[in-house]
Amino acid sequence: MKDFFSNLFGRNNDPKSIVSFDVMDAIYTKLYNEINNFEFKIQGIHDTVLVNLYSFPGSFDYKEAQDEIKNSGLKNAYGVLNELYKKIDIGPVTEEQMLQELEFDYIHIQFYTEPTPEVKKYLKHVLHNFVIFFCCTNSLETNDFKILYSGGHFINYTKGILETQSIDIKDPKTDIQKIGFKEFEKVLQGICEYLNIELPESIQLPSQGKLIPEEVEVTQETFEEFIQLVSRGNVEEKLIKKQSKKLLKNFKKENKEYHEIIQGQWDFFESIDCWNSDWKFDPEDAEYFISEMIGEDLNFNYPEETYSHDLFPYIQTALEKRNLELMTYDTQGDNYLFFVANKEDVGRILQLSELTKIEVNQL
Fold this sequence. Notes:
alpha+beta, 363 residues, 13 helices, elongated, disordered N terminus, 6-stranded antiparallel β-sheet
């Protein structure tokens, strides 16, 4: 059941915004009546988006969660909920309501985005958690919502949710939040598309067209195109067909096994004009190896005492003049496997990366 309390703020129902009560309530209704959790892909969003309908205390009714609650210094799940309610100015659950064992629902949405340039030195993607609670504003009926936010991983779920902070979606406090809040609008549109929720015409959609990618059959030709693009066409046709056949065979195996096998495929990609470097490198190394990859001298200006990740903007500026871009395969390790792509092919390379599960990152 939905059972919420009054708060101190006005309603969140801007008819032009997708982050509004009417949209949130429609999503809640679908989650409550049809499917209470799912994950799906959205074009332009790394990995999958996770959507869950949870409740207090029901979703915390297992030993690990009970231990987490105890270790946090609280008596029960209602205690956790009341701590969260304090942050968003919702009145506490009373002892009488606890005895009635009422359920208090909330929605938890998780997804990744690209980091800021500064954070990109350390993380390739950043996680965003949006926790949505419904409430009543100047009404006896549910007509509003509040959002708690965290950029952390909920390894200990109770601790993770207790560390969330109240946010105003229109007022991000950091550059990371600015990215996450903007993408949150796109994610909500994707959720509505996935759940077949018809949005009001008054809403200014964050993205035009479909957000959920259509199912595409991965074939040998898919891998051939990928190799062609990441090598800028500098691979013999015979080798492309041989390697594509091998990659497709591995792709069709179980996911876990595939990700283990792909570690042995970097030798091939390194052989088609890549630069394998650890996370620390000098500008002289970058100039030398990139020059080797593109077949001409590359020199770029950079401030003194600039190394490794801090060199990327200067490298990219120099390559952009040649309509090129430096990219890297995600080796899941602490090394880079750099390659150079034609600027106009970058978007397609990223699409093929998603299809083939050979992860590629922009720098």
